[in-house]
Amino acid sequence: MAQVSELPCDGDGICMLCKEKPSDEDKLTCVTCFTPWHVTCLASRPETLASTLRWECPDCTMPEDCAPVAVSGGDVAAGELVASIRAIEADESLTEREKARKRQKLLSGRVESSDEEDEMSMKKKKGKEKVEGGDDVLKVVGMGLICSFCMQLPERPVTKWIGQGKNTCAKCRRSIPPKMANQPRINSALVVAIRMAKMSKSSDSSGLEKIQHFVHNQNRPDKAYTTERAKRGGKSNAASGKIFVTVPPDHFGPILAENDPARNRGVLVGDWWEDRFDCRQWGAHLPLVSGICGQSKHGSQSVVLSGGYEDDEDHGEWFLYTGSGGRDLSGNKRTNKEQSFDQKFENYNEALRVSCKEGYPVRVVRNLKGKSSNYQKSYATSFQIVGNLVLHVKKECLMEKRTAFRHVCVHECSKGWLPLPDELSHKEKRSAYAPENGLRYDGIYRIEKCWRKVGKQGFKVCRYLFVRCDNCPAPWTSEEHGDKVRALPVISELKKATDVTERTESPSWDCDEKEGCWKWKKQPPRSKKRVTASCPQDTEQEFKALRKAHKKSLKERVLKELSCFLCGNVMTLPLTTPCAHNFCKSCLEGAFAGQTFERERKSLGGRTLRAQKNVMKCPSCTNDISEFLRNPQRGSSIRRKKMRKLVVKGLVMRRDRILHPGTKKNNMPHPQAEELKRKTNDASLLIEQEPERTSKRRKIDAEDGLSKIDAAEKENDEAEAAMDEGIDSPSSPLNVRSDEDIQ
DNA sequence: ATCCTTGATGAT
DNA sequence: ATCATCAAGGAT
């Protein structure tokens, strides 16, 4: 075919005709479309130096009345991008990881300080996906996307597009050389750029490189979820869901209704959660693993009481708490109960001491640790009440009994503080106040004293006396009122204690004698953190954040232009409709799968009338793009009648087109690539289950040989295949296959 | 007992 | 900002 006799170089600089990579001297770049051509393979070469500089490729050779377009750096920049990427790929001193990092930096790298877009404050903001940034890609890709005709950033990343019958640029309306219009090709350099963008995107989520992956609260699901990074699913390795309450992470005191926009009730005493994720999401206790929430310079906001420490004593309205640390948790050990060094008042332990000194309110959450449900079912235990504690002695008995015992126990407690006999304390014990299951918010406590003592394991531990001071009664009492001011219990271990700290000034949270309730008597400590969950109506600051979020960054806009309206991903085989909307070829075809271009009409008398054209609206707007779909490359065709029922062709996706970073060069298996392949296979199977269309198409092909569409298609395939081969395995020969080969 | 994970802290 | 470390987690 005459049209295919002359071909330019592809995105890898390989001549699509001779498959060789010409040197720079052997290349000629078209002044109009900036496509490089292999001089040796040209039918007619420019004679003079002057004509070389003004050389137009065979595609762009225009009639005399069409003036040539001024040269811009547009595609040169695109070439630079490709060259940069090639340089990275060719650099043998770099590991794959480093290459990925460099690619990432090139395509979606960090925001430069010279950035004019208002991104400086944005980038300061924590909790952003890695989508942000990427001025390098703007400078390079953005320039590369400048329309060869109108010198503007194109709205559509297809290099050559044809208006419906009018050969004009969709944006600038300048006329496009008719030959170029007749033989539109996908811009190979752009395809490379898009590919690389895809690669950087997929390496982002595959965790090939360590990239901090913040997910902003509003983008989190309501429930805990498994991240891309997690190798094992389920709750054991899950990430937290959305935070529902509008308190900052370092909020002290109860969580009120005003901070609970979702329910407008706040966190109430007795509120129950299945796991630490739920507990976190409602703001009662934020850390997922740690039992203490706090900062050494700021104070402690909450603790979880779960019986993990054998020194702990739980008496309901008051308890003795043990600090953290002292255990060797190196590696992945998280369950080492053996203490191997002394605890000190630092980090979390110091945070608790600050709350003690200041008299801050500390939220207390009780937890039934371990396999609570299993415990209830199989560890049916008999109990012995010793003091105010329920000791597990034998494995028999039912839960009901336990509840009953607890009731007795609580009843005993209400009479006064009963110390636990020391001789029994080493036995397995479980707090009578722990919830049946999961975690329960038990209200506000104050840390009245703290000290250090030698623990049961022989090393020093930090100790804290927590006393309840909540306006609501504890979950285990039938009292109508909250806590009263009561005398501190006598703590026998204080005799041997060291580093005793007591509050010297009046507490921040105290009982108001007049009002008879607990409240802030001093200004609560100023939060040093931002509210996680945003309530946009709250402050001007929030408004600003909201406005910023709505304001699309330049990067996002470019990315948007590179993405398909239908699948939302960066385009594969980008196509642009006459109404100037972008789609992956396969997506656009899929959208009209099974539809015919025309429908037959029957008159009342049963006589067949002329077929009526089916309107096929652009998925993005209301324009009828049936003409474009009929022949995306050439507009109308003389074979219209014969192709009457031909549906949009090429519906079988080509598996060999799927390109992924993991399959590059080394051909290492890549999980995402595998998955995509699988998906593609599934898609193919689905499509292949439509025999009618396939057979019709075959019939047409048999009649006419390759249809015009196929010819154009094949040409694009060649360009694509060349691209693919160039990237995947530069040495392998071109492997052009028709769709039939795949089936 | 062991593994794999999250998210906050605090040192740098 | 970045990063090692820590934490009373949750499954196998």
UniProtKB/TrEMBL annotation:
Residues 99-130, 660-743 are annotated as: Disordered. Its main location: nucleus. It catalyses: S-ubiquitinyl-[E2 ubiquitin-conjugating enzyme]-L-cysteine + [acceptor protein]-L-lysine = [E2 ubiquitin-conjugating enzyme]-L-cysteine + N(6)-ubiquitinyl-[acceptor protein]-L-lysine. InterPro entries: PUA-like_sf, SRA-YDG_sf, SRA_YDG, UHRF1/2-like, Zinc_finger_PHD-type_CS, Znf-RING_euk, Znf_FYVE_PHD, Znf_PHD. Residues 672-681, 690-714 have a biased composition (Basic and acidic residues). The keyword Transferase applies. This is RING-type E3 ubiquitin transferase. Residues 715-727 have a biased composition (Acidic residues). SUPFAM superfamilies: FYVE/PHD zinc finger, PUA domain-like, RING/U-box. Pathway: Protein modification; protein ubiquitination. GO terms for molecular function: DNA binding; ubiquitin protein ligase activity; zinc ion binding. One of its GO terms (biological process) is negative regulation of gene expression via chromosomal CpG island methylation. Residues 262-468 form the YDG domain. It is found in: Nucleus. It comes from the Eukaryota. PROSITE patterns: YDG (PS51015), ZF_PHD_1 (PS01359), ZF_RING_1 (PS00518), ZF_RING_2 (PS50089). GO terms for cellular component: nucleus. Its EC number is 2.3.2.27. Residues 564-622 form the RING-type domain. Keywords: DNA-binding, Metal-binding, Nucleus, Transferase, Ubl conjugation pathway, Zinc, Zinc-finger.
